[in-house]
Design goal:
Blueprint (H helix, E strand, L loop, with lengths): L6 H8 L16 E5 L2 E4 L4 E4 L2 H4 L8 H11 L13 H13 L4 E7 L2 H19 L6 E5 L8 H6 L16 E4 L3 H11 L3 E6 L2 E3 L5 E3 L1 H14 L2 E5 L23 E4 L11 E6 H5 L20 H17 L1 H19 L6 E5 L2 E5 L10 H13 L3 E2 L6 E4 L7 H19 L1
Parallel strand pairs: 3-15, 5-6, 5-7, 7-10, 10-11
Antiparallel strand pairs: 1-2, 2-3, 4-12, 8-9, 11-12, 13-14, 14-16
Helix pairs in contact: 3-10, 4-10, 7-8, 11-13, 12-13
Length: about 425
Amino acid sequence: MSEQRPWWERDADVCWHPYTQHGLEPSFLPVARAEGAWLELADGTRMLDAVSSWWACLHGHGHPRLVAALSAQAATLDHVLFAGCTHEPAVRLAERLAAAAPPGLTRTFFSDDGSTAVEVALKACYTACRRRRHGARNVFVALEGAYHGDTFGAMAVGDPDPFFESFGDLLFEVRHVAAEVEAIRATLDELGDRACALILEPIVQGAAGMRSVPPEVVQAARQACDKHGAFLIADEVMTGFGRTGTLFACEQAGIAPDAMCLSKGLTGGMLPLAVTLFNDAIFEAFRSERADRMFFHGHTYTGHALGCAVALASLDVVEAEGTPQRLEAVGARIEGALVASGTAARGSLRRFGGITALEFAAEDEGYLSNLGARLKAACRNESPDVLLRPLGNVLYAMPPACTSGAECDLIAARMAQVVASALD
């Protein structure tokens, strides 16, 4: 009987994994437990989580303060609908986020993950534009290489190549522009009052291969949106809570967006939870004595108490342990080791806080690069004790804040081995 086989072997019979070609993937790592920066497989093998489990594990796995918060909240209130009801963890979390976020972001709308946080931002900005009656503002602007999630609105503002090209005839109009000051200005000038909002990942684009979006580009986006009456949406799903060395990446550009999307590190990676923060101008476009002017959007687990309680504990840890500074030190240590070993000279090295990335020249650059396939194979074969997952022809590390100096050195050493194997 199939049930007599180990559970990790039965996976192949029943599971469909995300961003995975099952015709090519040889097997899946059977992760049984985790603690700190380490994962433990079913056979007892330990692997250092150098990618923070899809960039979500902020402090380390199983942080005791987060575990305690989850346990205490589960014993008090697990879940109640957030339509017509409220609860203390949600209110306190909204207050904390409003106090910590860039100025003016005073309203918190809860959802489930990064993609839904983006959907909320897009729908709210579009409707607010219609309510203000400032022309037919039905065009969004996004950056080339952008990735904002896999739901339909998020797909529309993402770069279609290679993920979303097959959905093109189902998506709304978006202008994709280079992450350059003049390109952004020219596009907004051309669109004028047709532009609804510009969305970007400030400072660094994650899925694009940890590509730079410099502060001056973010500032130009803010200025162009102000000039033409468009909204600015900051997708900080990946960059939020210290990943780039500051609590929010927008701080490095000195700007405040009209909407900001947060998830991943919001709960330290322990539970799915997302928020979209809005300024009052957007919120007030929906406040009315008419029921049909409400924001028609919601999720079953909107603002769920367990996630909010853990997010509050995670914010406590961020403040108590200096998470942005710790991540900055982690990234600097890995960068230094890659430079010292000569590995950095083999590609284009860039670092943003705790994110360290090496991009290599390839004839077919991008997520489906043949070099990317070689890097991925080398990660499996040359890095048995460090979990690395390249983005096409870009090899990167983004470990949690608890990663020690010795563990940083181990990550850099394995990255060097992967590079040597894939390139030589």
